Amino acid sequence: MAKIANISVDGAFLLTKNRFLYGSNITMTIKFPHLQIPAKAKVVRIESDGIGVCFLKIDELSRKLMLNMVSKFLAQRVVGTPLSDPIALYTPHF
Fold it and tell me: With respect to CATH, is domain 2-93 assigned 1.10.10.10?
């Protein structure tokens, strides 16, 4: 499991101690309060505290739901009453 430090509809930065190879594919579930979105992603950045991924496959409805949740999440953060932080459950997919 990883905590999402940054997310958009195109990708995310996942805080994780697990190690991944650059370019590897993962299957993940992004968990927002009351919503789970499955996604396939590619590792495009590796840092000491986590990985950056770009989403490869998210269906259009899930993409719209995620955009809505990300917008709400960011709006809540701006006014200082954050929602529960979204987390990502991931499985390396080689």
Answer: no
pLDDT of residue 76: 65
* 19-29 per-position pLDDT tens digit: 899 999 998 88
Helix (H, G, I), strand (E, B), or coil: what is residue 85? coil
The pTM of this model reads 0.74
In angstroms, the CA 17 to CA 78 distance is: 28
The position carrying tokens 């590796």 is 46
